[in-house]
Protein 1
Amino acid sequence: MKTHVQVVVIGGGLVGCSILYHLTKLGWTEVVLVERSELTSGSTWHAAAGIHGLHDNNNISRLQYYTMKLYKELEAETGQSCGIHQPGSIYLACTGDRVHQLRIQAAKAHAFDAEFYEISATEIRELHPLMEIDDVKCAMFEPLGGYVDPAGVTHAYAHGARQRGAEIYRFTAVLETSQCADGTWDVVTEKGLIHADIVVNAAGLWAREVAKLAGFELPLMLMEHQYFVTETIPAIASLDRELPSVADRDKEYYLRQEGQGLLVGAYEKAGRFWAEEGTPLDFGHELLQEDLERISDHVMSACDRLPVLAEAGIKKVINGPMIWSPDASALVGPVRGLKNYFVCNGIIPGFSQSAGLGLTLAQWIVEGEPQWDMFAWDVTRFGTWASKSFTQARVLDTYSSRFRIHFPNEERMVGRPLKTRPVYGVQQSMGAVFGLSYGWEHPQWFAKEGMKQMDEFSFERPRWFDVMGEETRAVRTSVGVIDTSNFAKYEITGPKALQWLDRIVANHVPREDGRICLTPLLSLRGGLAGDFTVARLRHDRLIMIGSGIAEDYHRRLFDKYLPEDGIKFASVTAQMTGFNVAGPNSRIVLERLTGESFSNAAFPFMRNKVMMINGYEALLFRLSFTGDLGYEIYVNEINQLDLYRSILEQGQDLGIRPVGSRALGSMRIEKGYGSWGREYSPEWYPIESGMAGLVKTDKPEFAGREIYLQMKDQPPRQQLCHFAIETKPGSTGADAWGGEPIFKQGQYVGRVTSGSYSFTCQTSVALGYVDTVHATAAGGEFEVAILGLPHKAILLDEPLFDPKGEKLRR
Ligand SMILES: Cc1cc2nc3c(=O)[nH]c(=O)nc-3n(C[C@H](O)[C@H](O)[C@H](O)COP(=O)(O)OP(=O)(O)OC[C@H]3O[C@@H](n4cnc5c(N)ncnc54)[C@H](O)[C@@H]3O)c2cc1C
């Protein structure tokens, strides 16, 4: 056994072996995998191992396709069979919303050259003659769909990794992991100590226990999951080919051919937790007590679909544990607060994602960050706010509606409220419908009297569409107040605070007290790791505002630069609460509130001031994400309620109204402002996103400077563009949301990052990245696939709202 290595991967399931394989593929050979038993001894060995490509998230789809395609290469490379069966998969839609979902996915498939297309009833019958389809409204076919052999795939990864120099130690449990002073790790195993630069937790069902060895917790819960395999079915045995898999997602079961019978699995409503307090260390190749009664409703639905199933005998039942995160997506990446420790856990469709996960994690380790924006998998999306009770509630809900359709703006109520701010009750009494923002309740829109105070989601324009219009008009014509407490806020203090931050962010940190700047933070590859507002209060006190959902993600990046003498970097998100008072009359409200002048001369654009309001200190910024005249006001949370009431009182005669974040989203899109996680992500370079002007190469030092200098004169791959889109008028229409493909004369040329309806300009609008060759033809016609159907889109050379920035400076 090696005693000094670059990486120790803990766990020899499907995922650990894929990580090991991809590390060697990227050239690292001093890498080992440690497995407490035989390979596949967690949930891998008993999986149904179905594979599919499409996901609502484009980059996850991309990596699922990479996975499906890799299995054949892996077989060829290693000689180890992966047991690949690809008879294709048929996806059925029996409701209008499912039709929309499938058509949206089929359109998105163009983004990664994937085959996923609509088929007629005749084609369904040809592909699957045993299926009843009278209730089917639409069906898609994915030729690469099917299943693999769990042990075959795992051993193929292991074989491929060994061929390139990796070593695997079986029957060697990891007992302890302790961090050394230099950030490396001592990994204590049953058979001795391995000293590693980097540790990867790929311990599957035992991910929580292995995390605890390093002193942290993961938001994961285990659920029992059942499928069964039938005896031979004569109608199947007589076929000369294998039947495609069937995804009948409205009924929450999956079904495919297995041998000459069928395999059926289901996600029951009354899901059952397993090993809530910890996975037994001696569990391995056992199964859990079968109980088909629990999934009988789903089985009945499957029998209605495939009547031959009703007559088949059952050959075997599998009830095995699966480990889930609160949103059913994997928890991947470096753990904040620990050096050189990575996780890759909570994986549900492991056989569809194994290669994508392995590649992502290997890139993160070897190259410093993944190639694609993988925030949807990033472990930092759950902070410590994701408590055990929240995780439990969410996992149960997610399990029991595994195939539920995810709509634009979707919010789920279970497990909430977790964290509320002092204005919560008042906002609620004013009609606020809340969403979850990094653990906090945050107003999305304000229901009017007589309206149901709750969300109802739809692919078409939602029930709150008209309210969103009224909230927007309040801002554009008079004044609105928007809660901005959900932004992440950081305070940087100390004599060297300014110099320190200036060496990290790409723009100049303001050179005078009282000024504000916007600045990108560049990633290792030169992409946009963040976009921040930095306010210089004094030379030794800065306030930085960033994306709320990315707080842990950004703190992980800033942690790399700490600790340094004379600098204190602290999150003040909880104690610093704020509002944006925006619109042409916002100045009047602020003057009444403070008794001070807010004229352009007294308080110019992009400045900050500390003022007293009602006897407490408030920090004011002159800027607004609405793109209109506006001011952000921040106070300590104990003063938040008083401030809110005072703002509303002072604006009452001006028709002030509370405005939610959905209206804010519409306003920032019509103004053309990008948002982190949408237009701005590590995947996009500043020269592509319009941020190049904020990268100051005259600075001797900032994160990503060298890579930026190398690439700044290269032609951008794609460019961020503004579109006006022709859609149906009124509440029956639909707008782009994000992820929709953009076509030019039928050819895929890019994708939408955000879309909405512009109430100010009375048109549907979108932001999106388009191949550079097409990005400069203002007035040019494109097609955006909304609900999977082409809609005419005109490329604009500037944002529709206030392109010259006169309103925000008025
Ligand atoms: C009934 C069922 C059906 C499924 N069907 C499908 C399907 O159709 N398609 C699909 O894609 N997915 C399916 N899955 C999910 C799939 O099985 C998982 O996504 C996948 O197996 C996860 O693999 P893993 O490597 O992350 O974890 P595991 O397979 O749990 O591997 C973890 C490994 O870590 C080892 N380990 C743990 N602790 C230590 C330690 N301290 N020291 C050393 N080693 C340790 C364990 O022994 C184990 O071998 C199914 C799961 C179940 C339960």
Protein 2
Amino acid sequence: MERVDVREGRTAPWPAWVPEALVSRVRAEGIDAPWAHQAEAAEHARAGRSVIIATGTASGKSLAYLMPAAAAVEEGGTVLYLAPTKALAADQLRALRELELPGMRAAGYDGDTPFEERAWVRRHADYVLTNPDMLHHAILPQHRAWASMLRRLRYVVVDESHRYRGVFGSHVAALLRRLRRVCARYRSEPVFVLASATIAAPGAVAERLVGLPVREVTADGSPRGGKDFVLWEPPLTEKTRERGAPVRRPATAEAAELLAELAADEVRTLAFVRSRRGAESVALEAGERLAELRPGGPAGEGAGGGRIAAYRAGYLASDRRRLEAELRSGELLGLATTNALELGVDISGLDAVLITGWPGTRASLWQQAGRAGRDGRRALAVFIARDDPLDTYLVHHPDAVFGRPVETTVFDPDNPYVLGPHLCAAAAELPVGEADLELFGPAAPAALAELVERGLLRRRSNGWYWTRRERASDLADLRGSGGTPVQIVEADSGVLLGSVDAAAAHSTVHEGAVYLHQGETYLVRRLDLDDAIALVEPARPPYSTWARGVTRIEVAEPVRECAWGEASLHFGTVRVTDQVVAYQLRDAATGTPVGEEPLDLPPRTLHTRACWWTVAPEQAERLREEGVELPGAAHAAEHASIGLLPLFATCDRWDIGGVSTEAHPDTGRLTVFVYDGQAGGAGFAERGYLRAADWLRATRALIADCECPTGCPSCIQSPKCGNGNEPLDKSGALRLLDTLLAGAPDVTTPEPETAQPAA
Ligand SMILES: [Zn+2]
Ligand SMILES: [Zn+2]
């Protein structure tokens, strides 16, 4: 069970209908009564109203859905629990089994469930924990085998629902509509209970996800008083890399040092680090440093060594309890962790929290910072910026963090590229009739017509049918990797090392690429695109490789536009053609280019959505006269703006791409495009269009604030540039953005109530 921090809310009496067994088990865990927000959400669900509970991490969302779920099971109903990952579902199953509720037959159903166990789950389990992938590939296509469970289905729990964003969110939205349709066939109408981290407009987001009216229940997750919040930018070092750009001290090195120094002063500290390997190295370095700071310090385990630990996902409940206890007692002074800690560990009441790199959203930042603060003592939170435009912007603009509402979740349920395959899967489950069109939304009729034209569906008098031999569910790629992932195989041994997404294969595992896998270096001998295999061999080349590509973008259909004085802003659909044409060899130590090899790879085309802006020819001419190098200025503005879009669209910079050109054939002007990196669009570019004035003003400020002379990774250089970060003109970018923004609306766009207001 998640436990609640007492300062977070009021308690409420147990609703009378909650099974006595659940009440006594929860009391045995030390929780006397539910929190008011838990009880409120539970009452909605009990009354048949779908509900989303959106609160901070440590506020015990699981009890909210467990109350109605346990009551339903006691009455002979069933519950379907969906988690975004297999690991989280397994975690919840473990917690549920520890409760030992009499009569509840809880079971997991995922790719690892043994075949012989599956039949038992289908027939006898009344609380099934699974993930969207299994629902899509295994449960819905075989709904007849699940008839007994589906007929009695009372609740669908959608846990961690804020993780369904971007294209993945669009897939899950379609999947939940398919589930509702299949349930209707068995005459059940389950109530949806969603649990989410704190997000803006949770009710509206939930309604778009499930396609039903959803009540929202929120609890105050804002940070408590008495906290010092420090924004910390690591200093530039003497070292340089690409194009002479100065190198900042790594954020993880700063985190390790701070962790050690705080621990040396007996300040109990938790450090959040983005990657698992990073967390381990921070713990290790901090332990060594602590030993230096306190030689012969506290007895045992080499002074500092044993008093700082790394936390990994997948710990058993008993391990977690031990860690919790050691931190509480002060036996353990420091813990470095990835965000895995968010999953069901009760670690709060610390003195300090270090947040290494932007955790993605303001909501996550507050949750992480909220771990610090005990017994009314003053607490410390430190945000340590990584070498990244977004982090740089935030340390210079605290107003973008403080006093702002948390974000909403962005996805587009009407993405035609997502909807099409789900309509095929739906038709294979049960023929799609006219009456189903409303369920699948306004994009459905056109999508169905196209599927008929492509020969995927057949239209008969009473609806649309799937008549092909293949499994329709194989058409949809839920995790949105855009094609078959390429398997990486060691050529001599045939050992499978891993895989990369189809979209990234051309640039990361092309012939001759240096490929890193768990600290080992390999050289790609051959990339076989037909079989989706890259053959590699161990090697230690004295260089790294960097793919070079050309990207062309064409406007397919402009959807919206507005004038910013002589400049203009647009949103619409585009066709992006990407081709990796060569790779550069760079000295492994200095990063200096030492050679280039051509590649012969086919172009890849992506139909997606983009936001783009232009300046008028006269404006461009004036800039040119002032000596601005326009291609470098536009390119630099593009990179920086991509780095900052995540602040406005809850995406990752790797989810979006960009193209800049001095004269684009479709606009006839200097144009900068920013597009969604997945087919059909993910809603991010649209969000950029809606927040453009704020977003591009922030971009300008970011470039101006970075103290590097001509550009660095903290401002205008991009780690994924297909042009080797060339050309880039930092001061020119400022002049270009000034010109663009001169005609932009002054008023700050308010955070819209919903993610994407209707067009
Ligand atoms: Zn810079
Ligand atoms: Zn670039």
